[in-house]
Amino acid sequence: MGRPNRDDVVSFLRQFKRAALGPPERLEIWSAIKNVDGLLQLGINAVMRNDYLIQLTPEDYCEGPKDDDDSSRGGEVWIFGMTIGDQEVYIKLKVVGEEPFDMAICLSFHPAERPLNYPFRK
């Protein structure tokens, strides 16, 4: 798949949010040190982070889908970004499994290490 169009991003976000808003065990957040430290740097807690995830829009899309080389689960990751306070935040998401048993996974949520590109922002 080349660069997705806006409808592809809408479809991914719909699937991610449907899983994330389901039973709690269907939202997995990776607790890498970078992610834990990121919440502290951003001055937000886990509940606020989850609220930000649900607020993502196609305009927050940056890149993907691309193969997830860092996971034994395989699949594809999608990169999003948003600004919290004065910090640009890097967000890496994926969905695994089949509906209605799919899982939403947040692999990264931390201050961006480089500027992000938002192709659907005007």
Helix amount, in percent?
25-40%
Please give the CATH architecture.
2-Layer Sandwich
Distance between the termini: 23 Å
Q: Could you say how many structural domains there are in total?
A: 1
Poorly predicted runs of 5 or more residues = none
What sequence of helices (H) and strands (E) makes up the elements? HEHHEEEE
Can you summarize the main beta sheet? 5 strands, mixed
Number of beta strands: 5
General form: globular
Radius of gyration: 14 Å
- What is the CATH top level name? Alpha Beta
Which structural class should the secondary elements be placed in? alpha+beta
Query: Strand percentage, roughly?
Result: 25-35%
| Mean pLDDT reading | 92
Structure characterization notes:
The chain has one domain: YaeB-like fold. The chain is 29% helix and 31% strand. The model has no long low-confidence stretch (mean pLDDT 92). The protein has 122 residues and is an alpha+beta fold. A hairpin with an 8-residue loop joins strand 2 and strand 3. The chain has a 5-stranded mixed β-sheet. The chain has 3 helices and 5 strands; from the N terminus they run αβααββββ.
